Amino acid sequence: MWIEKSLIEGKYVALEPLTLEHVPSLIEAVKDGEHWKLWFANVPTPDTMHQYVNDAIKQMLLGNIAYAVRVKATNQIVGTTRFYNVDEPNRRALIGYTWYSNAARGTKVNTECKYLLIKQLFEKYSAIAVEFRTHLHNTASRKAIERIGAKQDGILRNHIISNSGTVRDTAVYSIIDTEWPDTKQGLLKKLNSE
């Protein structure tokens, strides 16, 4: 597999390859904020967490690596994130399936998670692009993606039919390899100043 399933550690967070052992902690994390109730978000409920993690583990066999996000200062699991649609021949991957507890929102958690994942792609795996996708109406997610330095590529109209049957328009963003040095400096500056 192109992307190894391994622990990724930063100053504030540790990204642990997702296992079923993370389920109880993730259930507690998702209860903090109840973000599964947002119609435009794809966040598991406490009742569906076991299946969500099990599905992510199956995807890891295909090279799509999922992580539990642990805050090092508190040792708490606060959410998940992952590499998906990993495309080794074209040296690109998406980062997504990201959700956090309310306690982690507005902290350095997301900035450092994205920094660590993007750094892995560009510096360890020589990727040429990293992509992010979110619901057109998920303004919080779109602002977070823009804040890390990604540029909007466009909107995929009528892109996905959700579990509820609604049709989703998807905002697509990316960072390419030539942009990484400046994006990296911007992310490091945010981590040092937040």
What does this structure look like?
By secondary structure, the protein is α+β, with helices and mostly antiparallel strands. It has one domain (8-193): 3-Layer(aba) Sandwich (Aminopeptidase), CATH 3.40.630.30. It contains 5 helices and 8 strands, in the order E-E-H-H-E-E-E-H-E-H-E-E-H. It has helices at residues 23-31, 49-60, 109-124, 139-147, 180-193; strands spanning 8-9, 13-17, 66-71, 76-87, 92-100, 129-135, 151-161, 167-176. Strands 1-2-3-4-5-6-8-7 form an 8-stranded mixed sheet, with helices on both faces. Strand 3 (66-71) and strand 4 form a beta hairpin. Helix 3 (109-124) packs antiparallel against helix 5. The longest helix has 16 residues, at 109-124. It is globular. The chain starts with 7 loop residues before the first strand and ends with a helix.
Give me the secondary-structure topology:
Blueprint: E1 8-9, E2 13-17, H1 23-31, H2 49-60, E3 66-71, E4 76-87, E5 92-100, H3 109-124, E6 129-135, H4 139-147, E7 151-161, E8 167-176, H5 180-193
Parallel strand pairs: 5-6
Antiparallel strand pairs: 1-2, 2-3, 3-4, 4-5, 6-8, 7-8
